[in-house]
Design a protein that fits this description.
By secondary structure, the chain is mainly beta. The protein contains two helices and twelve strands, in the order βββββαβαββββββ. A hairpin with a 2-residue loop joins β3 and β4. It is elongated.
Length: 173
């Protein structure tokens, strides 16, 4: 499990006073109203920033940090991810998972046959799709795409680090 999780990415400066425009990467943009401090992953260290103000611009968020006082300084943060300690993130609802919990799980069929490891997640709007790097025993080198639906996902066991899937016709072809 990671120490920090990403909740947004800085798109660039907003205005002249050091505000930054954020692409939210979290379940709700209202979450930024509840957070007092965030971290940026800077070369060699984590930089602590304190949120002074939060504004909403449609689907984007504009933040002002106490430590950033001008547009030039804010422009240097472009592309940086905004992180919070994982323990400050609320637990997901029953049967729901954060991406960081799914990525890295070993995938098996109901019979126990190794399928591979989840390496990514594609958000389609309807349901997520898990990208799986095939296990060595599978005679294939192409990624496997597994829809995150109850007809396919039999069980997710975070403690064991594994996911069990029901094989549907054509899923591993």
């Amino acid at each position: 499990m990671p120490d920090y999780i990403t909740i947004g990415r800085i798109l660039g400066p907003h205005g002249l006073r050091g505000d930054v425009k954020i692409l939210p990467l979290t379940y709700s943009i209202k979450r930024f109203l509840e957070i007092e401090r965030v971290f940026l992953d800077m070369p060699g260290k984590m930089r602590l920033l304190h949120i002074q103000t939060v504004l909403f611009h449609g689907e984007r968020v504009v933040l002002r940090f106490r430590e950033i006082t001008g547009r030039e300084e804010a422009s240097l943060l472009r592309g940086k991810e905004i992180l919070i300690p994982v323990e400050e993130s609320p637990p997901p609802a029953e049967g729901e998972y954060y991406h960081y919990q799914i990525i890295g799980l070993e995938v098996f069929t109901e019979e126990g046959t190794p399928v591979g490891k989840v390496t990514g997640i594609i958000e389609t709007g309807g349901n997520d799709v898990y990208v799986v790097k095939p296990a060595r025993d599978l005679a294939r080198d192409k990624e496997i795409l597994i829809p995150a639906i109850s007809d396919v996902i039999e069980d997710i066991d975070l403690g064991e680090g594994k996911m069990v899937i029901k094989l549907m016709e054509g899923l591993l072809e």
